[in-house]
Specification:
By secondary structure, the protein is of the alpha+beta class. Helices cover 36% and strands 24% of the residues. It contains two helices and four strands; from the N terminus they run βαβββα. The protein starts with a strand and ends with a helix.
Length: 74
């Protein structure tokens, strides 16, 4: 049984998580030979000010501004 844990910045829609889960499940079936009902995906939402890349909080990273704005607008 593949258990797949996905950490995402908070704010993705249910539709986005559903589409991602379908794609990842299909990949697990195709690549790992897993049975579809046995693929478990756990989404964990992380606030942007709880993640840092290169010493910069995601919430303050100008290079991520467009992504964060898109998530906030969802």
């Amino acid at each position: 049984m593949p258990n797949i844990r996905v950490e995402l910045l908070a704010g993705r829609t249910t539709a986005q998580r559903r589409e991602f889960a379908e794609a990842v499940t299909q990949a697990a079936v195709d690549v790992l030979g897993a049975r579809r009902p046995d693929v478990r995906i756990l989404f964990e939402e992380v606030p942007a000010d709880h993640v840092a890349n290169g010493g910069v909080l995601a919430s303050e990273d100008e290079s991520r501004a467009a992504v964060l704005a898109k998530i906030a607008g969802s």
